[in-house]
From TrEMBL:
Keywords annotated in UniProt: Cell projection, Cilium, Coiled coil, Flagellum
Top-level taxonomic group: Eukaryota
Protein name: Cilia- and flagella-associated protein 45
Family: Belongs to the CFAP45 family.
Region Disordered, annotated ranges: 97-119, 176-198
GO cellular component: motile cilium
Subcellular location: Cell projection, Cilium, Flagellum
InterPro entries to which the protein is assigned, alphabetical: CFAP45, TPH_dom
Domain Trichohyalin-plectin-homology span(s) in chain numbering: 136-292
Organism this protein belongs to: Photinus pyralis
Record's signal peptide: none
PANTHER family tied to this protein: CILIA- AND FLAGELLA-ASSOCIATED PROTEIN 45, NASOPHARYNGEAL EPITHELIUM SPECIFIC PROTEIN 1
């Protein structure tokens, strides 16, 4: 048997497994469904002395390694059914034979054999009664042993539950850490995407501002050119109007000069007419004077 040391090593004295001596092996407890087992953890170092299997073990493993086909399975099932039927037939035959032998060997009521059979029956009854009492006592012991086994099983189940609870807690903690890590990575990814969107919007705003500024500059240039063109048109219109006004003024002046000349000519003509009238009157007066 193995004993557990404080350092977790097994004290193995002259114990052989496959004819190999085990030394300094770690031992663990495995809580199964119905029992607690202690297992020796094998060493990671290679085995220097090879193990030797007996021929019976080799044949057993060779037979166990044989893969049964569907035909072999059907043949085995049929053979098992035939063997079961043969066993049932043999049992029935033995029962019938036993009944016949009991009927043949049944003794007469007043014979010596009947008395011996009665004594044997009483002795058999006593033995059966004693066996029943012993069985009751054994059942009590079995009950006590069963209760102890049940308590051990409960303890093993409790320990297994504690181990599973601790394992589940570690797994849940690991899962929470993994989820936290995933959430942190997702958060960093979202922050990076948000920074990229902000940078894109900022660059787009700058490009739009530059485009708008350039468009405003172009519009201002176009507006200045349009205003200059309009001013030039206004200047040309003003010049044309001034020329027209000058032409009209010149025409008016020429008209005034023509009218003045006409008036002067009329005045001169009137003056000549008046002078002619005066001369004519003077000539008429002189003529009248001559006539007288």
């Amino acid at each position: 048997m193995h004993s557990i040391k404080k350092n977790g090593k097994a004290d193995v004295n002259d114990h052989r497994c496959n004819h190999i001596k085990l030394q300094d092996k770690s031992v663990i407890q495995v809580f199964g469904k119905n029992q607690i087992r202690k297992l020796i953890i094998p060493s990671r170092e290679p085995i220097k002395t090879p193990g030797i299997w007996p021929s019976t073990e080799f044949k057993r493993l060779q037979k166990a390694a044989y893969v049964l086909t569907q035909k072999d399975k059907l043949a085995m099932i049929e053979e098992a059914q035939q063997r079961k039927l043969q066993i049932q037939t043999d049992c029935e035959r033995r029962k019938e034979s036993l009944k016949k032998s009991q009927l043949e060997q049944r003794a007469k009521p007043d014979s010596k054999l009947a008395k011996e059979e009665g004594a044997a029956a009483e002795k058999n009854q006593y033995v059966l009664q004693r066996a029943y009492e012993l069985r009751q006592e054994q059942e009590d012991e079995v009950k006590n042993a069963s209760s102890m086994i049940l308590a051990a099983k409960c303890l093993a189940v409790r320990q297994q539950q504690l181990v599973e609870k601790d394992l589940m807690k570690r797994e849940l903690d690991e899962e929470e850490r993994r989820l936290d890590s995933m959430m942190e990575q997702e958060r960093q990814k979202k922050l990076k995407e948000e920074e990229e969107r902000k940078r894109y919007r900022r660059e787009l705003g700058q490009r739009n501002a530059q485009a708008i500024s350039q468009q405003i500059s172009e519009n201002q240039v176009q507006k200045l050119l349009e205003e200059e063109r309009k001013e030039e048109e206004c200047r040309n219109i003003n010049k044309a109007m001034i020329r027209m006004q000058q032409d009209d003024a010149e025409k008016i002046r020429q008209t005034h000069l023509a009218q003045k000349k006409i008036r002067e000519d009329l005045a001169e003509s009137n003056a000549k007419i008046e002078h002619f009238k005066i001369v004519q009157k003077e000539e008429e007066r002189i003529a009248n004077l001559r006539i007288q």
